Structures are given as C-alpha cells and as structure tokens.
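Worked problem 6 (solution included).
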Amino acid sequence: MKTSFKMVAMLLGIGIFPVCAHAQKKVVIEDEEPNSIMFVSRDKAGDEIIRIMNDRSQMRFHDPNAPRFLLTDQKGKFALGIGGYVRATAEYDFNGIVDDVDFYPALIGQPGKGNFAKNQFQMDITTSTLFLKLVGRTKHLGDFVVYTAGNFRGDGKTFELQNAYAQFLGFTIGYSYGSFMDLAALPATIDFAGPNGSAFYRTTQLSYLYSGLKNWKFGIAAEMPSVDGTTTDKVSISTQRMPDFAASAQYNWNKNSHIRLAAIIRSMTYSSDVYQKAYSTTGFGLQASTTFTVTPKWQVFGQLNYGKGIGQFLNDLSNLNVDLVPNPEKEGRMQTLPMLGWYAGLQYNICKNVFVSGTYSLSRLYSEHNYPSDNPDAYRKGQYLVANMFWNVTSNLQVGAEYLRGWRTDFNDATRHANRMNLLVQYSF
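Solution. The predicted structure is:
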C-alpha cells in the first residue's frame, strides 16, 4: 500500500511540474462559480427565473445542479437552461461480486454457479446526464417548468429518458420520480442506486402538490401502473385496470429539515389459466421519512417503508419480480407478500467543500401461505452499508471515494456477501 501511495505521489508530481514550470507563459481563466446564474432583465422577471432555475426541492443528490448555459426569449420572461454532467466511476468488488454496475444486495452472486471469481473490476460512464430546463413565471400558470433529462443507461449504452415533465400551478404532468418517494431524504452515495431499503422509481403521472400553508406540503397522484410478478405456466401478469394512487403530507421546520408521511394503493390484475379468468388483488405501501440538521455540520437521513405488493417501488426488491407471486396453497391464484425497507444515515460537513457520510439499510421479504415452497434459496433479506467522502474541488468538479458492503440472506438462511470500492470524478456544466 505504501508503494502505491508513493507511485501516485510521483505521478502527480510529474504532472504538476511542467504546469508549474510554464505557468508564467499561460493565461489562466478563473472559473470559481460558473453555476451561479447571473441574469440581466429589465424587471423582476430575471430574479424569478433565477429562483425557479435553482430550485432543487424535488431533486435528489444525483440530479444535476443549475445549468451553466441559458437561452432567453427577447422579453427575458422565459429561459432555457442546458446542462448536465460527465460522471465517471471506477468500481472494484472483492470477497464477493454484485452482478450489476449498481450495488444491489439481491444481485450478490452465488459462488460456484457459473462464475467462481470473487473479485471484479468495472468502470462506468453511463450515468452521465444531459438536461433541458425551460422556466418562467406567468400570470395564469405561476412558476412554469418544463424539464427533460436523460443518461446513457439504455441497452448498449444508448441514451435513455429519465425525466420528461411539465409543472405549473402545483401540477406535474409527464414522466418523473414517483410520489411514493422522498428525494430530499435520500443520502449521498457514489453508488447510483443508493440504499436498498429506500423507495425509488420513476413513472408517468398526473400529480398535484399543494404548498399554500406555512411549512406544510400536501400531494396526491395518479400513476401509471407497472406490475412485476413471479409467474408460472398457470398464472401470468395481465393488463392493468387501474392507476396507482399515492398521497403525501410533509412538514418543514427549516430549509434542510422535514418529516414526511406517504401512502400508495394499487390494484394489480393477473390471469389464471386454471380458472380461465382475470383476478385483481390489492397492494399498499406506507412510508415515513425525514432529514434534519442536528448542528450546521451534522445532517440526519432516514426512511421506513412497509406494505404488500410494493416490490416495484423498493430499491432492492425491484430486481426480484415480487409484486405478485404464486400462492402455493391455492393452485392458479397469486398473492401479495409483506415487505419492509428502511435506512438511516448521517452526514458530517468537514468544511464548505468536503463532507463524509455513512448509511445502513435493510430490505426484507416475508413469507405467507408457504411461499416459496419450491425455492428455498430465494431472496429473503438484504443489508447495505456505505461510507463515503466527497470533495467539491470547484463548483463544477466533484471527486469522491466510497466503501460498500452488502449481505444477502435467503429463505434457507444461507448468507453471502460482497464488498465494493467506488471512485468518482464528476464534471458538471
């Protein structure tokens, strides 16, 4: 390890020396705060555009900051921001492998089944993001936002839509994060997926957020249903009859502190070849989440999720197709299983540009009606532990390092684990 540090220091020294030797011959362009928007207009419209463009209340840690480049109309009433980031990560798994570029305990491989390696090196650039953000404030629509963003997580590293929505008068119409989520309560991670016990999903929706009361926000939503299930030759997932309905209430006592309660209910339809008909079963989810400042340097994050048939929304369980599963005690019928997910995290701000954080998370699937009677090595519980450090070198350049450990426990109590080191370099524009 000492040798590695010496080599890194030597390489840095070699790279810095020529720069220092010829610095007097170069012109250095200062770039201290490129993402601080400066907008010139003939009235207060510019101030409103800056406020709306900088708003991150409905964004998570991995979402881009305010754009660096702006285009405006002739009257300065609307502005189109163009931005994003280039995000490169290096990942090294040891003493166990997660079969994905993101760290999901459910995907920790079982030794001796096709892959006997215990180590793995990966590099990833696919989370690099581009976005367009049109903002304005009108007499009839209030704060108006049209936002489109995508990254390269499509098949074969193709461009894939992540967000596409319009917001006005409290309404959101389009494709974005679901309402059974608390974006502001998600902790910072290099791992793009984040804690396995968190609620995380995107969906097409019509939602409404009311913020007319001091310190309070209330939301309702109708969302496009998406049902995953473990099927057999006798049961299959059918077309869905009803949207998912979500509701939330949030209380803020300062800019960085809130508590939020949310619920979702869904009617899930499946077909039975045994009875030659379609059935619907009800799923539901309950959520409590919070983030708050203990002191100016300490921030707490936490979330608890419980429900039945909500595997689609829970970060780790979404890989397992467990919204609906067969009922071993009733041939030709399916059921929803109870499931739990939670996390707790802590962040310490060492200084203005450097912070460290740590989070522990757990997700669990419970058995009912003798499920899974024919698959004892099916996933029962996953644990996720992360510790990291981030350094905002400039307002545009961020680097970070991270350690992850995951455990997977099956219904037969067999446990396997994996470890991962992550390194991050991200440049925003």
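Discussion: The helical segments are 2-21, 45-54.
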